[in-house]
Amino acid sequence: MIPRTLAVMLTNKCNFYCDHCSVCSGPNVNDVLSDELIMMAIDQCYFIPSIRVVSFTGGEVTLYPEKLKMAIEYAHEKGMLTRIVTNAW
């Protein structure tokens, strides 16, 4: 299998508790990746030619709009496409 997408789980924090959540996210979970770790993951995947899409997921990524914006801009600077996974809150 050839990897095509880097999935970056920015946070486990979410504004909902869903019974079907497979990553144990919720309002009382405060895990969040550092900017440095996000950039390091993107930098490393930049050298894998098949990966040209970065998907930002969580928890709820829109709870950290500045971090999400930074991560999208950084991936864009590397020539990568981006996606977000959100609960559309």
Describe the structure.
The chain is an alpha/beta fold and 89 residues long. 28% of the residues lie in helices and 19% in strands. It has two helices and three strands; from the N terminus they run βαβαβ. The protein has helices at 35-46, 65-77; strands at 5-11, 53-58, 81-84. It has a three-stranded parallel beta sheet with strand order 1-2-3, covered by helices on one side. Helix 2 (65-77) links the parallel strand 2 and strand 3 (81-84). Helix 1 (35-46) packs parallel to helix 2. The protein is globular. The model has no long low-confidence stretch (mean pLDDT 93).
Separation of the first and last Cα atoms: 34 Å
Question: What can be said about the biggest beta sheet?
Answer: 3 strands, parallel
Give me the strand/helix succession.
EHEHE
SS-based class: alpha/beta
Overall spatial form: globular
Number of strands: 3
User: In terms of per-residue confidence, which ranges show pLDDT below 50 for 5 or more consecutive residues?
Assistant: none
How are the strands ordered across the major sheet?
Answer: 1-2-3
Helix content: 25-40%
User: What percent strand?
Assistant: 15-25%
Radius of gyration: 13 Å
Average pLDDT, rounded to a whole number, is 93
Question: What is the number of helices?
Answer: 2
